[in-house]
């Protein structure tokens, strides 16, 4: 998708502070962190939102969660805890129309979030 900021990050057109990359996903630090540890994991395939998941492309969510598991262990926040957030649609707070997961940690996170 030509105008998608996350597709541009994947293509290297916009720089990011990468944590992890493979043939399916990219993980990078959020440019405006809401916690001491705040990174995103996005699929390289453009999927607009959770509403666009299908039987054919849904395996990417499992892969993303396995990568999150790997990264939080490497960053040392697995045991203390962290939050995984996916915003879907305008009312859900989604501002980039490319499915993505925010991972926040290294501080106590309150509920409800906002």
TrEMBL record:
Which InterPro entries does the record cross-reference, listed alphabetically? Histidine_triad_CS, Histidine_triad_HIT, HIT-like, HIT-like_sf
- Name this protein carries in UniProt: Histidine triad nucleotide-binding protein
Per its UniProt entry, which superkingdom is the organism in?
Answer: Bacteria
- Which SUPFAM superfamilies did the record assign? HIT-like
Give the signal peptide, or none. Answer: none
Sequence ranges assigned to domain HIT in this UniProt record: 5-114
Q: Where is this motif: Histidine triad motif?
A: 98-102
Q: Which Gene3D superfamilies match?
A: HIT-like (3.30.428.10)
